[in-house]
Protein: Serine-pyruvate aminotransferase
Amino acid sequence: MSDQNPVFIPGPTNIPDRLRRAMQVQTQDHRSPAFVNTLAPVLKGCKTVFGTAKGEIITFPASGTGGWEAAITNTLSPGDKVLVARYGMFSHRWIDMCQRHGLDVQIIECPWGSGAPADRFQEALSADKDHSIKAVLVTHNETATGVRSDIAAVRGAMKASNHPALLMVDCVSSLGSMPFEMDTWGVDIAVSGSQKGFMLNTGMAILAVSPKALAMMETAKLPRTFFDFRDMMGANAKGGFPYTPPLQLIYGMAESLNMLFEEGLDNVYARHTRIAEGVRRAVAAWGLKLVAQTPDLYSDTVSAVFVPEGFDSNRLTERVFGTYGMSFGVGLGEMNGRAFRIGHLGSLTESMMLSGLATLEMAMADLNYPVKMGSGVIAAQEYYRATAKPVLAEK
Ligand code: PLP
Structure:
């Protein structure tokens, strides 16, 4: 049965039983004092995951896209200029949202497979002598291409050009799976969601907002009601919500944070790196190429893989789902038909990953890919064996 298989799409991710159980709670009155005890630990725990002591955590019942909208509407006014590099589908969609909100978007076009170009940001910011650019928007982990960008380098470019713009970062597909250091990197707004590293269902946009970004909400003129930081923060400060909260998801978040902290964030990140490296070894053994151009850009949550010349990646994802009931990510935008994606984030073990690689190999063999069946699985197995950490202490 296909619903027994893990998914290997880069979010939403597999929901562990422990989190499904945590969300099986009866409705509670969100205006009762008990609600404070539900929400407050979640806001506190999220600070640790974002790597912020100074930032405020603000959540909305929305997906990550709602988080983007909240970030821009609470800090910017119509006609404000923002600087964004386009290097994949999600940086593209954020640009589109800014344009639809009447912002003046200065776009740095980059090849898909590359990352945020700190040097070109620096050039653009240095040229902006009157500081008309109000915000720089960066996608930390471009889920369409499997590229992780260097956020500290972007902040470095902003410092080098002595530019006061806000730094907004999309960490929807990285937070909770790869290190994120909001305060150290000087991020003003970081946007994420519940359905990837937090291993939950979709429905909670989670933002971390710096004091500098919060100060801008009083003068920002883009319209917002549902997403108004002031309403949410005001209600949260009194232990409430400005409208009906997604109670079950808040319970889920509390338990997700427990799981992440029990494993230890560093161990969570190391697990993702290790599983991802096994996938990369498999891809190399198949003789296929990653979309990410260089190893420093490799994402530990998703790998986008080019199919060989003359093959259509959509046929592969259709075959693996249609025949074996397993989901992998399709190629998005420019990558449609050219690349497929392997999601390797959230609740995942190396054994689960091996089942995914083995199943992909069957589908590739069915479609006559020039790939030796078993070669990728063996490469990943060898890497996982060589780096295994026993789950039980050996006698
Ligand atoms: N940003 C990135 C990097 C994503 O991967 C996604 C979704 O996959 C989004 C934004 C949009 O988030 P959502 O689908 O939760 O609205």
